[in-house]
Each structure stands twice: as structure tokens, then as C-alpha cells.
Amino acid sequence: MPTPLAFSVAIGLIIYLAILKPTEVSKQAWRLFAIFFTTIAGLILGPLPIGAWAFVCLMITVITKTLKIKDALSGFTNDIIWLIVLSFFFSRGFLKIVLGDRLAMYFVKWFGKSTLGLAYGLAIGEAIILPAMPSATARAGGIFLPVINSLAIASGSSPNDGSARKLGTYLIESQLQVHGLFKFEFNNIRIIKSPTDYPIYCWN
């Protein structure tokens, strides 16, 4: 058995078999706790690719009857999770068909008179996309990172050769600040709307 796999499995077995279970915790919950630690250990040590390891651990929870299959798969119905997954599919597609480079050239054409213009163009894009794609991970990884990377490389700025500060660092930092600004503004709107959607009841 390879060392990372052995360590990952051993951690879960030690927690489940060697550590005394608190009386308040059910046997099923303790088993789930051990599987959770095995999952985390495997994600860190990497006996398998992340997706494969997560799927194996998910299967274990079902096979050992720790969770019902309906409960084990309930996370896959989360809209935000699928939005993030699809955004990274889009990101890979950007790289495959060089769409990121094409969009970058349009950004240069429209806003490329200065680095400040490029930053403003990306900020406008963030404002337009945010209502339709509320996940920050989806927007950053699936849309803006490929475009910023293409803009930086086209300008001779790469994170691998010490030239990142020419343009890449500036665009990343400006986009980070813009993201924070728009995210909090959007959350303020949600907070104002939330009392009507999710009323809070108080009892004396």
C-alpha cells in the first residue's frame, strides 16, 4: 500500500477504533467524523486525485451505512457548487480555444490606452457579471483569471520569470479590490431584502 494511502486510511482507523468515543456522540456520527478526517488527510497527502479521493470517501460513507445515499448526494444539488464547477469548465474551455486571448485583445482595443483603462474595463465586467454569477470563486477562476493572465502575458508580464510587476500584479490587485467593493455592495442589497424573504420571529 503506498505511503500516502496508508497514512490517510490509518488516520481514520485510529480515530474510529483507538480513540474513545464521547458518550454524547452516536456511533454513526463518530464513524462519519473518522471518514471526514480520512478525507481531509487524503486531500492533503494526495494518494489519488482530489475528485477520485472525494468520490471514494463518499462511497465509503454509503457502503458503511454512515449516511443514506440521498443524504450523501444532497450536496450535489447545491446550485452554487455547480456554478463553481461549470465556471472552471468554462475556464478550461477558455484555455483550449484561446478565448481568453481573444477577449484580452478586445480589452486592449477598447480600454488599452493605459493600464488604468484595463483595470476599469475589468471592473465594469465585474459589475455586469456579478448579479448573474454571485459566486466569487466562479467569477475569479472561470472568467477573470484567464483574461487577466492573457493580458499580462501579452504585455510581457509573467509570474514565472520575475516580470509579474509589469502588469499582472497590478491587474490582479485592482481586480481584488473591485471584487471586494462590489461583493459588499451586492450583499448590502441582499441584507436589505432578506427580512422580507426570511422573516425573524421573536417571542417575549
Largest sheet: none
Helix content: over 70%
- The assigned structural class equals mainly alpha
Ranges with pLDDT <50 over ≥5 residues?
A: none
Query: What's the Cα radius of gyration?
Result: 23 Å
Helical segment tally? 9
Shape: elongated
Order of helices and strands: HHHHHHHHH
Count the domains: 2
Average pLDDT, rounded to a whole number, is: 78
Q: What share of the residues does DSSP label as strand, in percent?
A: under 5%
Gap between N and C termini: 61 Å
- The total strand number stands at 0
What does this structure look like?
The chain contains nine helices and no strands. The chain has helices at 3-18, 27-45, 50-63, 69-72, 79-96, 99-111, 115-129, 136-154, 168-197. Helix content is 73%, strand content 0%. It folds into two domains: 3-77, no CATH class; 79-197, no CATH class. The radius of gyration is 23 Å and the shape is elongated. With 204 residues, the protein is mostly helical. Helix 5 runs parallel beside helix 8 (136-154) and helix 6 packs across helix 8. This is Solute carrier family 13. It is a multi-pass membrane protein. InterPro entries: CitT-rel, SLC13A/DASS. The chain crosses the membrane at residues 30-60, 72-90, 110-130. Belongs to the SLC13A/DASS transporter (TC 2.A.47) family. DIT1 subfamily.
